[in-house]
Specification:
With 564 residues, the chain is an alpha+beta fold. The protein is built from 18 helices and 24 strands. The strands form six sheets. A five-stranded antiparallel beta sheet has the order 1-4-7-6-15. A five-stranded antiparallel beta sheet has the order 5-18-19-14-13. It has a five-stranded mixed beta sheet with strand order 8-9-10-11-12. Strand 10 and strand 11 form a beta hairpin. It is globular and about 65 Å long. The relative contact order is 0.10. The chain binds siroheme and iron/sulfur cluster. The site of siroheme has 32 residues, from strand 1 and strand 4.
């Protein structure tokens, strides 16, 4: 809640004075400098980009640290759905203007790293020409909407595309700043983008107190980690096969700071069920309550999860009901969750085509010597004109593959030595955030360390005959939680240089936050810790129990004693 005595965070004045997110972006863009000023960097987030520098290349000079600046651009890609030609545009841009890699994200988007300031406008224009955008991929607004994966092309899941597009468009900033700054007149005309100078009917001039995330799924399918979103919709299907309503969730979010107990990860609360036609009124009601009551004095307390934690879910529910003019049905029973695997080859529901769930470790798509992953994916996707869906687990599902194409793709992948399968069970659902060298907030390695850790963990699982029950492992380079470590069975979170905090006890279906087991484990001691933990799990006498359920059932203090 905003207390009047406390001054507003300085970002609030920046947003208010930005003239609809314009600020000095256009002026600074025209200057022959290699980077933007700090104020402009904050506004650029609303346009879908972060200023970064390669932290491996920082140099100490007598005048301070010399940095090699560039921008990271993030797409607004609801549900991670791309056509073959749209995928090819991201791929081309990564080579032409980026650092040569595509990075699939935990919110079904794509990031390009390493784009120089002088190239950013061309890059954004090319993205928009492909009917894509970067608008509001970052910033204090509704971000990329995630949506359940649909490898089989099922009709019930397919309806979610319309829902996430609707939500994404409804909450897109209305300001003409994006078109005005990045697209020239001809492109605006081609895209039928009107520069409107409209005020923001939902956000107002100071937008939201903080980032806001939405996920959409079918009740029962939690492949997108619904509970970690600020707002989530789990659709139910009526007798006619159409969506007839939604279970509505609010108040999930994962960011925390070490040693600051007022910050914490939190899973969303179930507010209740509403009929299908109430989708937009309810979504808008939730966003507006956060807009008006979220804490604008402290960005570490500004997410919706803190508002709901502080004021209580009953207060929040009735506030939303009165704004939306809709009552939640709190009696309707939520079905059990499960997380279906999409990896590997699967026959699609039409009985004619195939989907290939292509495992990409940490979502990094790059050509390495002897392993031309980026070129191979581009070639296959464009040759067979395949639609793709990026998954919330940083993988890529290739869709609509005919029998002939399947055989040809298998041959071509074998020829190139590319393995589309996950190498072993622990890899199936493992995630890591980018961390070093691009992320300015990283304390430790993450994406670059995961390939060292996973084989060690798999070896222990194999030795103990537990590989078939491999837990969900997620790693991040700081406590912000970008690879969702706290809702995993094992969360490994950057603590100090070369050391990690270890969380255990999340459930495989992502409905629970894990507990802190050890606040400071050196990287080289992680495998040993897990060897001991996996042995305890193995000898616990409950062969059906998952690692997450085991470490949740046994109190942390007991686990700590057993490990000591
Ligand atoms: Fe994130 C900030 C990367 C998903 C919580 N996140 C960042 C930045 C932009 C660092 C920065 O602010 O300078 C990272 C850029 C690193 C780089 O070099 O690329 C970054 N976040 C990512 C991605 C790329 C991780 C990945 O491995 O895929 C994900 C991009 C998603 C997208 O396409 O939109 C990403 N970030 C998440 C998630 C997971 C999710 O949403 O499912 C979370 C936890 C859920 C949540 O929001 O609570 C997450 N990111 C954060 C936070 C902490 C927010 C908080 O409430 O405290 C920050 C820092 C901040 O906002 O101050 C952050
Ligand atoms: Fe950067 Fe931390 Fe997010 Fe990793 S979790 S990408 S280190 S902000």
């Amino acid at each position: 809640m905003t207390t009047p005595e406390k001054p507003l965070d300085k970002n609030e004045a920046l947003k208010a004075a930005s003239d609809g997110l314009r600020g000095n972006i256009a002026q600074e863009l025209a200057e022959p400098t290699d980077h933007f000023t700090a104020e402009t960097v904050n506004l650029l987030k609303f346009h879908g980009m972060y200023q970064q520098d390669d932290r491996d290349k920082r140099q100490k000079t007598p005048d301070g640290i010399k940095k090699e600046y560039s921008l990271m651009l993030r797409g607004r890609i609801p549900g991670g759905r791309l056509t073959a030609s749209q995928y090819a545009v991201w791929d081309d841009l990564a080579s032409q203007y980026g650092s040569g890699s595509l990075r699939l994200t935990t919110r079904q988007s794509v990031q390009l790293h390493g784009v120089l300031k002088k190239n950013v406008k061309q890059t954004i224009r090319a993205i928009n020409k492909a009917l894509l955008s970067t608008i509001a991929a970052c910033g204090d607004v509704v971000r990329n909407v995630t949506e359940a994966h649909n490898p089989l092309g099922r009709d019930d899941l397919a309806q979610l595309a319309e829902v996430s597009d609707l939500l994404s468009d409804h909450f897109k900033p209305r300001s003409g700043a994006y078109a005005e700054i990045w697209l020239d007149d001809q492109l605006q005309h081609e895209l039928q983008e009107e520069i409107t100078d409209q005020s923001e009917p939902i956000y107002g001039e100071t937008y939201l107190p903080r980032k806001f995330k939405i996920g959409v799924t079918l009740a029962g399918d939690n492949g997108i980690d619904l509970y970690t979103n600020d707002m989530g919709f789990a659709a139910t299907i009526g007798e006619n096969g159409k969506i007839d309503g939604y279970f509505v969730f609010a108040g999930g979010g994962l960011g925390m700071s070490h040693n600051r107990p007022t910050t914490f990860p939190r899973v969303a609360d179930l507010l209740g069920w509403v009929p299908a036609e109430a989708l937009i009124p309810i979504a808008e009601g939730i966003v507006i309550v956060q807009r008006d009551h979220g804490d604008r004095t402290n960005r570490k307390h500004a997410r919706l999860k803190y508002l709901i934690h502080d004021r209580g879910v009953d207060w929040f529910r009735s506030e939303v009901e009165s704004r939306a003019g809709v009552q939640f049905d709190v009696e309707k029973k939520l079905p059990e969750w499960n997380t279906p695997s999409y990896l590997g080859w699967q026959r699609q529901a039409n009985g004619k085509t195939w989907a290939l769930g292509f495992h990409t470790l940490s979502g990094r798509i790059i050509d390495r010597p002897g392993y031309p992953l980026k070129s191979a994916l581009r070639e296959i996707i464009t040759t067979y004109d395949l639609n793709v869906q990026i998954t919330a687990d940083q993988d890529l599902i290739l869709l609509g593959i005919t029998d002939e194409a399947k055989a040809a793709i298998e041959n071509r992948l074998a020829e190139l030595g590319i393995n589309p399968e996950s190498p072993a069970t622990i890899y199936d659902r493992a995630l890591a955030c980018p961390a070093l060298p691009t992320c300015g907030l990283a304390i430790t390695e993450s994406e670059r360390y995961l390939p060292n850790l996973l084989p060690e963990l798999q070896k222990i699982l194999d030795e103990l005959n537990l590989a078939h029950k491999a837990p969900v492992v997620r790693m991040t380079g700081c406590p912000n939680g970008c690879a969702r470590p706290y809702s995993a069975e094992i969360g490994i979170v950057g603590r100090t240089l070369g050391a990690y905090a270890v969380f255990v006890g999340g459930d495989p279906e992502g409905t629970r936050i894990g507990d802190l087991l050890n606040d400071n484990v050196k990287a080289e001691e992680l495998a040993d810790l897990f060897r001991k933990l996996f042995r305890l799990w193995k000898t616990s006498g409950r062969p059906e129990e998952s690692f997450g359920d085991f470490t949740h059932r046994v109190p942390v203090s007991e686990l700590q004693r057993a490990l000591a």
